[in-house]
């Protein structure tokens, strides 16, 4: 379930509940596009509220993902909102959307259903959804203390692309649904001491030749980040 709320400096107030939202995710961070709200309760009230907000130039809001208690667990900003069309129980909005990548809400919905209970759930995601999983992991990973001198073990047969590597790395370091970077620069930031790791002593990369072939120059960039932090690298 989703909810709509206007942007506010105080706690967000849901003014409409929505069964589903189409077009809410995109690989581009910010995009001007339409969103289709499916099965909205009290459609006339939502339209009237948006029309009133538009008149006073306060027509920015959020599409919020809700849990079964109707509490907000994730949200997507939409600016310069206007109503394009409406039907009996659906509304199409136009606005500037600050999108999460494809797969983000899928991961959250699985979490709300308690379906992320073991490693490698991300393998059920399509390639284009893996960045969504990684952003979900970024937003949900909880760190309990700092780990020192840890050993990392990676198997190149366990992933088929760079995003899959970062999904694997995140779970190797921080457990089920864990995060430890979603790109080279973010990974480098994590190695500086973010996300629960103060230092890494050793990296063992099994079947590394497969990864090297897949990643090309990115493979050497990853190894360089480890090397920059004085990590012993074992390639098998």
Detailed description of the structure:
Helix 3 runs parallel beside helix 4, helix 5 runs parallel beside helix 7 and helix 6 crosses helix 7. Strand 4 and strand 5 form a beta hairpin. The chain has seven helices and nine strands; from the N terminus they run E-E-E-H-E-E-E-H-H-E-H-H-E-H-H-E. The strands form two sheets. It has a six-stranded antiparallel barrel with strand order 1-2-3-6-5-4. A three-stranded parallel β-sheet has the order 7-8-9. The chain is elongated, with a radius of gyration of 21 Å. By secondary structure, the protein is of the alpha+beta class. InterPro entries: Barstar, Barstar-like_sf. This is Barstar family protein.
Protein traits:
6-stranded antiparallel beta barrel, 2 domains, 31% helix, alpha+beta, Barstar-like_sf, 3-stranded parallel sheet, Barnase, Chain D, 236 residues, Barstar family protein
In terms of DSSP E residues, the strand content is 25-35%
Distance between the termini: 46 Å
Mean pLDDT: 94
Number of distinct beta strands: 9
Secondary-structure element order, as H and E?
EEEHEEEHHEHHEHHE
Q: What is the third-level CATH name, the topology of the largest domain?
A: Barnase, Chain D
Low-confidence segments, given as residue ranges, are none
Number of helices: 7
Strand order, biggest sheet? 1-2-3-6-5-4
Under the CATH scheme, which class of the largest domain?
Alpha Beta
Estimated radius of gyration? 21 Å
Which of globular, elongated, flat, extended, rod-shaped describes the shape?
Answer: elongated
Q: Biggest β-sheet, characterized?
A: 6 strands, antiparallel, barrel
Which homologous superfamily in CATH is the superfamily of the largest domain?
Barstar-like
* Overall domain count: 2
Domain Barstar (barnase inhibitor): 152-229
Pfam family, one: Barstar
Family: Belongs to the barstar family.
InterPro entries: Barstar, Barstar-like_sf
């Amino acid at each position: 379930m989703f909810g709509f709320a206007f942007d506010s400096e105080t706690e967000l107030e849901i003014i409409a509940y929505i069964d589903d939202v189409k077009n809410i995710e995109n690989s581009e961070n910010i995009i001007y596009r339409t969103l289709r709200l499916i099965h909205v309760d009290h459609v006339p009230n939502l339209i009237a509220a948006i029309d009133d907000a538009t008149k006073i130039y306060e027509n920015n809001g959020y599409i919020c993902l809700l849990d079964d208690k109707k509490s907000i667990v994730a949200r997507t900003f939409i600016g310069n909102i206007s109503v394009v069309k409406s039907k009996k129980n659906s509304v199409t909005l136009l606005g500037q959307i600050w999108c999460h990548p494809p797969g983000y809400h899928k991961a959250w919905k699985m979490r709300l259903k308690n379906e992320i209970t073991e490693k490698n759930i991300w393998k059920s995601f399509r390639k284009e959804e893996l960045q969504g999983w990684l952003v979900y992991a970024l937003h949900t990973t909880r760190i309990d203390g700092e780990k020192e001198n840890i050993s990392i073990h990676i198997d190149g047969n366990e992933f088929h692309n760079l995003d899959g590597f970062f999904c694997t790395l995140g779970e190797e370091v921080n457990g089920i649904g864990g995060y430890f970077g979603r790109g080279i620069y973010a990974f480098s930031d994590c190695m500086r001491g973010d996300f629960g790791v103060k230092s890494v002593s050793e990296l063992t990369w099994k079947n590394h030749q497969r990864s090297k072939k897949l990643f090309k120059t990115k493979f050497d960039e990853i190894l360089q980040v480890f090397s920059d932090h004085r990590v012993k690298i074992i390639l098998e």
